[in-house]
Design brief:
The complex is a heterodimer. Chain A is an alpha+beta fold. Chain A contains 13 helices and 16 strands. Chain B has two domains: 145 residues, 3-Layer(aba) Sandwich (Rossmann fold); 111 residues, Rossmann fold. Chain B has a four-stranded parallel beta sheet with strand order 2-1-3-4, covered by helices on one side. In chain B, strands 9-8-10-11 form a four-stranded parallel beta sheet, with helices on both faces. A two-stranded antiparallel ribbon of chain B has the order 5-7. The N and C termini of chain B lie far apart (78 Å). The chains are: A alpha+beta, B alpha/beta. Chains A and B meet through helix 4, strand 3, strand 12 and strand 13 of A and helix 3 and strand 6 of B.
Chain lengths: 392, 303
């Protein structure tokens, strides 16, 4: 038996290229249905888990899918905003607490998410280095952001203008990185977290500039009398917030009217959630309240109808693989006709020949399965990207 | 005998140790309430008693102009409840990151009664057009009626935090309310005696006291420990002459030079401590009682 295995092994290593091609092709055929199945199942599980861990989402009326995708995955879909006043009203309701989310801007390709410290407690996020954001202008970055941009505590990130043809509209703000999050295997790894007020500064609702009352430069101050000081475009608006200029930062207008993308609402208990949802249905609140798990389930149902097609395809592919393998074996035996005849003439039995060919098949299939297993394990690392690129 | 003595010492030490552990444990269980000024600290400690831990940071100067560091912001972030005065008092909150769900604005209930003040000149820059940074007067608690509403807001917030102690909280709140009502009553009597006479306030912090009790106040911007300029004195003399003012209200005891000069102008001094920060001695009610009594005495004095 050992001799048969030795001969089979030698045959495979002698025909290196042919054996490699066979191992890779069989491996990929074995991997594809299983890998894709894993990808789909894990994506489904991850999406459902994130949705289930978010009890309720409040947002402006419109597409509930966009609202959920924006709130859970920070995909910055064009959803209508709600106002800060609703946050106060919802918190005052006594049914639970709300966490604000404002995701409209990005920096170097990663979404800037405006929120408050409740978000980190709610998602049970922890820091790998640095501290939580304390002041406006500071940010805490997800582990993927830190890894891909190769930045950490003490570095800075500049927000991208919303649109390059509207340079005067949204001021780029240089944000100081004060903390890096532990990997959470969630969209939080790919986000830049700032306080909601930092987002408002990026939007231009708040800003800091030099004190006009003490500036007598005629190119900066165009008009001055006892009631009014009028500044020109030369007035320097700070593009970073630090301890030196923080006092000059201020917000204009009524902060109650400031925008939020949505609210994550965490009810006290199931009863509070039911009563609170009823208030939206009765029209007491004009916004919509949604259960993210329901929306994600609906979304997955429509997306994963394709899963059924995949399953059928995989059965057919599997059947074809077995046929191809049988064909390869048959052709291989035919090709090795002379070689097998020589084996007979030197005294080898039919069983011995079958044993040698059997071992060859065993080694080839074994290596293919190992190769498929490695690919299968690697698939786990691409679930996040799969969700990001193919589902949402 | 010696053995018995040693056993007693051991037992007493053991009991001390466990008592300390118990205290630490109960401290860990007590909810932490962070407050932004002394009146709210007093309200929260009076209502919450030993059932809560009230954290009022040591602030040098007026807490309204406090600038916390990252560590202090972190302490506020981790509190179970954050009591804000509102009416634009804690401007620093606009620049820090705090959980909105934990902040209770104690003056929100009477937002429509906040007094608007202009903060500087109208100015314009960019496409925004002309605008004035408007603010609000924030020493709301000097109208004791408003202080009662703020205390009620504190009571409601603490009740939500520790609903199992409602009986004790009710009792504490009633006592506090009674003290504040007494102050309100006394202040109304003082205001009645003051009648139509004008008073000068050394600082623009008495807007709610003025409106709440119908006082006639003219505010200047003087500091008790800074000598006013000649122009400031001239303006004051004009106000005194125009309104026949005989009393000036101060946040703190003014310098001797100021006192002497005011006495020469026949102006009496009455210190009315706004008590935004922790007093060196006494508590909020003691300080306010003393304020009202001092004002009553000064008004009663012949001018």
């Amino acid at each position: 038996m050992r001799q048969s295995f030795f001969l089979a092994y030698k045959y495979i290593t002698f025909h290196k290229i042919r054996s490699m091609v066979l191992i890779f092709s069989i491996g990929i055929i074995v991997y594809l249905p299983n890998g894709l199945k894993k990808l789909i199942n894990e994506s489904e599980a991850q999406m459902v888990e994130r949705a289930k861990s978010t009890p309720l989402i409040i947002g402006a009326k419109g597409s509930s899918t966009d609202l959920v995708i924006n709130t859970l995955y920070f995909q910055q879909e064009k959803t209508e905003n709600i106002t800060m006043k609703i946050l106060e009203e919802v918190n005052a309701s006594g049914f639970g607490y709300a966490i604000p989310v404002l995701s409209m801007f990005s920096a170097r390709g990663f979404p800037i998410v405006g929120t408050d410290p409740d978000y980190f407690n709610f998602r049970e996020l922890s820091l790998v280095s640095g501290r939580w954001m304390s002041f406006v202008g500071e940010c805490v970055i997800g582990s993927a952001v830190a890894g891909k941009l190769n930045i950490g505590v003490g570095d800075s990130l500049v927000s991208s203008p919303e649109n390059f043809f509207d340079l005067a509209g949204v001021y780029p703000l240089k944000m100081n990185v004060v903390g890096v999050l532990d990997p959470a295997d969630s969209p939080d790894d790919h986000a830049i977290f700032v306080d909601i007020k930092t987002n408002w500064v990026i939007m231009g609702l708040g800003h800091g500039h030099e004190d006009l009352t003490n500036n007598y430069d005629p190119t900066v101050v165009l008009q001055r009398d006892s009631n009014v000081v009028k500044a020109g475009a030369k007035l320097y608006i700070y593009n970073t917030i630090n301890l030196e200029n923080m006092d000059s930062f201020h917000f204009h207008g009524d902060m109650d009217s400031y925008p939020l993308s949505s609210l994550i609402f965490v009810p006290k208990d199931h009863k509070s959630a039911t009563i609170f949802r009823g208030r939206f249905e009765s029209g007491e609140f004009t916004q919509q309240i949604i259960v993210p798990a329901d929306v994600v389930n609906n979304l997955l149902q429509s997306i994963f109808r394709i899963k059924q097609i995949f399953n059928t395809v995989f059965i057919l592919v599997g059947f074809a693989t077995i046929l191809i393998l049988a064909l390869i074996v048959t052709l291989s035996i035919r090709l090795r006709k002379d070689e097998i005849y020589t084996m007979f003439t030197i005294g080898s039995s039919r069983l011995k020949v079958a044993e040698i060919i059997g071992f060859e098949l065993f080694i080839l299939i074994g290596c293919s399965v190992i190769f498929a297993g490695v690919l299968y394990l690697l698939t786990g690392f691409f679930v996040e990207d799969f969700i990001r690129n193919f589902i949402i | 005998m010696t053995k018995l003595f040693l056993i007693l010492i051991f037992l007493s030490l053991f009991s001390c140790g466990s008592k300390k552990e118990n205290t630490e444990e109960s401290d860990a269980k007590r909810p932490v309430i962070a407050v932004v000024n002394y009146p709210l600290y007093y309200f929260a400690t009076t209502i919450g008693g030993v059932m809560v831990m009230v954290d009022f940071p040591a602030i040098d100067g007026d807490p309204a102009y406090w600038k916390p560091n990252a560590k202090q912001v972190n302490d506020f972030q981790h509190a179970d409840l954050i009591l804000a005065n509102g009416a634009g008092y804690e401007k620093w909150m606009e620049k820090v990151s705090l959980p909105a769900s934990k902040i209770v604005n104690t003056s929100m209930g009477f937002k429509d009664q906040w007094i608007e003040v202009n903060e500087g000149l109208a100015h314009s820059h960019g496409a925004e057009g002309k605008h004035v940074h408007k603010g609000t007067a924030f020493t709301t608690w000097l109208d004791f009626n408003m202080a009662i509403q703020q205390a009620a807001s504190v009571y409601k917030a603490i009740s939500n935090l520790i609903p199992d102690h409602s009986e004790e909280l009710d009792k504490n709140f009633e006592m506090l309310q009674k003290d504040l009502r007494d102050l309100d009553k006394k202040m109304k009597e003082v205001a009645k005696i003051a009648g139509d006479q004008y008073l000068i306030a050394s600082h623009p912090v008495y807007q709610y006291l003025e409106r709440g009790y119908g006082l006639k106040l003219n505010s200047v911007h003087w500091e008790p420990n800074e000598l006013p300029t000649d122009d400031m004195w001239k303006n004051l003399e004009k106000t005194i002459a125009d309104h026949r003012v005989g009393i000036m209200i101060w946040e703190g005891e003014p310098m001797d030079e100021i006192r002497t000069k005011l006495e020469k102008l026949n102006v009496l001094i009455s210190v009315f401590h706004p008590c935004g920060n922790k007093p060196e001695s006494g508590n909020f009610i003691d300080i306010m009682k003393a304020n009202v009594e001092r004002l009553a005495k000064t008004i009663d004095l012949p001018k």
